[in-house]
Amino acid sequence: MSRAALLVLADGRFPAGGHAHSGGVEAAVASQGVYDTASLEAFCRGRLHTAGLTAAGLASAAATGYDLLMLDEAADARTPVPALRQVARRLGRQMLRAARITWPSPDLDRIARVLPQGAHQPVVLGLAARAAGLTPFDAAQCAAYESVSGPATAAVRLLSLDPFEATALLARLAGELDEVARTAADAADRVAAEGVGVLPAASSPLLDITGEQHAAWSVRLFAS
After folding, report:
1. Do 75 and 120 meet the contact criterion of CB atoms below 8 Å apart?
2. I need a labelling partner for 188 at 20 to 30 A (CA). Which of 36, 43, 61, 63 fits?
3. By C-alpha distance, which of 93, 101, 103 is closest to 130?
4. Could you tell me the pTM of the whole model?
5. % of the chain surpassing 90 pLDDT
């Protein structure tokens, strides 16, 4: 296994479309829920332990080789808002395109064939990690990190925050990020025996509500 592959997959410059999405922080800024580094840290921490944990579980399970169609259905069930389901599938298509070129694999080809409308992004992320020779825990770490790095980067643009402070914020969350990844990977390790119901399904109602509202904005900087 190449540890460098983990760096490539987790790199925000990996061309999977994430730079165009704020992870809900644009709507949070508009509602004044996020307005400085401290409030951004609270937002990211909440997102990590809800949407991030759920995504990490799905990605980790996909990296184990578990049935991708069942995982995609599980992702649908964990994404109740239509706007966010569309976003997840759009990001899944973009990640799949990048991953198939970077780490060609039959699993990635299969998901492109059976789900031409796009699979949920965490499922594709897990398959990409598997194709790159990474572990389920690695996949969980990528998903967990992505759940906070995207909003942190977007907030720098939206609020003109100090990028050094935003990076320090991510460093402060590192221990919690690893904890979330371990919880997700432990659940994924049991999914073959216990089914997808064992995977995390942490809810974030406010992210769901603001995500649907954000999709209706006529003017916005980020796609979500």
Report:
1. yes
2. 43
3. 103
4. 0.95
5. 81
